[in-house]
Specification:
The chain is 20% helix and 30% strand. It is of the alpha+beta class and 461 residues long. The strands form 6 sheets. It has a 7-stranded mixed sheet. Strands 7-6-5-2-9-10 form a 6-stranded antiparallel sheet, with no helix packed on it. A 3-stranded antiparallel sheet has the order 16-21-20. Helix 2 packs across helix 10. The protein is globular. Bound molecules: zinc ion (ZN) (2 copies).
């Protein structure tokens, strides 16, 4: 008899068993008043608080709506039932297979980012639906390894090389088991399904390679120098140099530091750190034509990226990118994004005050005047805030140079941001890890490259 699975919140290395996880799929903040679920090919038990359990037959549709006192549930043409909570459970344990599970229509993916969209998702494990503050909440409860299969094929595509998928799986497992970030404390789930935590999109995109990567790394995690499971952050593209947790979140994480995303002894090590004085060379120097940086287009061609990215991502050159604003457009954006700059009439300047070792701006000052000519400086004090404010969606990264154009009288005419990478840049670089795998490097070496102070060890069977 396998031991009874414990929840992730009480899991520790001493537990030694695979934990279960509650993943928020539809959140209250999505503000959905109605949900449609499709029972897949296997019948399910529907348990509504205050009612006897019902059997849902394969391919039946369940409509759940929010009511004044909780939820209303219709199964096919039957109902409605009034309840405070709905659970859909399988009578027997199910194996995770591509496309198997309960279909949830219109799940929000990419919440608040430039790629936000709604997608249908098929979920393995149990489903719980609750009324939330502002909208319905849907939680998917499942064993950690089944969850990971849905993470590695959502973060990137299941078509990626096996060693990339294994490295991504180990890193995602480690980050989750570390459970060190205080997220969703007031929610009825442990982690959400999106970039806020880790992307998870159920079973639709599972590939044999992804299932193999989960199976072959089962229970394997990165261990920090202090013996704890590593809080292994990761991001899409570092741009050439990865960032420190201190620069992004203002904290130290034992075992997570900055690396140059290139082979040992590569000349690119001269960019560690990226500073104001080498930033222009880092962003546009001639070295880029021949570089062997793992996340650059010489290693992972832009044209091939579409094959390897997650389903919700847009294909672009994330390694080096340009965003251009006419001054008036940027002023509109700042008034809209910053309540404290609602009175902004003229933007004079943007200045990076501090950068992390990857060149990511961590403090940025906006120098502006209101309609009465009063001079104001508004400070953006994190890389997250900088990326959130300086783009209508979300800026790829804060590793950018500001290139202003001015009129003869010195007034700002336009601003070009020339940048590197996508994401906060801490820990494993996903496109870089893909590049390493495409170069034939195995998953353990990929993990060592991004977390040189950590080791790999099994933490449950
Ligand atoms: Zn989250
Ligand atoms: Zn990289």
């Amino acid at each position: 008899m396998p031991p009874v699975a414990s929840g992730i919140q009480t899991w520790s290395r001493e537990t030694g068993t695979e934990p279960t996880l509650r993943v928020g799929i539809v959140l209250a903040e999505d503000r959905l008043d109605a949900l449609r679920l499709g029972i897949g090919t296997t019948s399910r038990e529907l348990c509504c608080d205050g009612h006897a359990a019902l059997t849902c037959e394969p391919r039946q549709t369940i409509d759940i709506g929010r009511s004044e006192h909780g939820l209303t549930v219709r199964i096919g043409d039957q109902g409605p039932l009034a309840t405070s909570r709905v659970r859909l459970v399988s009578r027997k344990p199910l194996t995770v297979e591509p496309g198997l599970g309960v279909l949830v229509h219109g799940v929000v993916a990419g919440r608040g980012f430039h790629w936000q969209k709604r997608v249908d998702q098929t979920l393995a494990g149990n489903i719980e639906v609750l009324p939330g503050d502002g909208g319905i909440v849907l939680v998917n409860e499942l064993p950690l390894e089944d969850y990971l299969a849905g993470v590695i094929t959502a973060e990137m595509s299941g078509a990626c090389p096996a060693d990339f998928l294994k490295a991504q799986c180990v890193v995602a497992r480690s980050w989750l088991l570390a459970m060190s970030e205080p997220k969703h404390l007031a929610d009825p789930f442990d982690r959400c399904n999106d970039d806020c935590c880790q992307r998870y999109q159920g079973t639709d995109d599972l590939s044999p390679a992804a299932l193999g990567a989960v199976r072959e790394t089962r229970g394997l995690a990165l261990i920090a120098p202090d013996g704890s499971v590593l809080d292994a952050n990761y991001a899409k593209s570092c741009g050439g140099v990865s960032e420190t947790p201190r620069a992004v979140w203002g904290i130290e994480k034992p075992g997570v530091s900055s690396i140059v995303d290139a082979p040992e002894a590569a000349p690119e090590r001269r960019f560690h750190p990226v500073t104001e004085s080498n930033l222009a060379e880092y962003l546009d120097g001639e070295w880029l034509a021949r570089t062997r940086v793992y996340c650059c287009p010489n290693t992972v061609p832009v044209g091939a990226i579409g094959r390897y990215l997650g389903r919700v991502d847009e294909v672009d050159d994330y390694f080096r990118w340009t965003v251009h604003y006419a001054a008036t457009k940027l002023e509109d954006l700042l008034r809209e994004k910053l309540p404290e700059a609602a009175a902004l009439a003229v933007l004079h300047d943007l200045r990076v005050v501090a950068r992390g070792v990857s060149g990511r701006a961590t403090i940025l000052d906006l120098d502006w005047a209101d309609g009465d000519g009063r001079q104001v400086i508004t400070r953006l004090d994190s890389e997250y805030r900088i990326r959130q404010v300086l783009h209508r969606g979300f800026l790829y990264s804060s590793a950018f140079a500001i290139r202003p154009e001015r009129d003869a009288d010195g007034s700002l005419k336009a601003v070009t941001l020339r940048g590197a990478g996508w994401g906060h840049g801490v820990g494993l670089c996903q496109i870089g890890a893909l590049g390493m795998a495409l170069c034939g490097i195995d998953f353990a070496s990929i993990c060592r490259h991004y977390y040189p102070e950590s080791t790999l060890a099994p933490v449950y069977k």
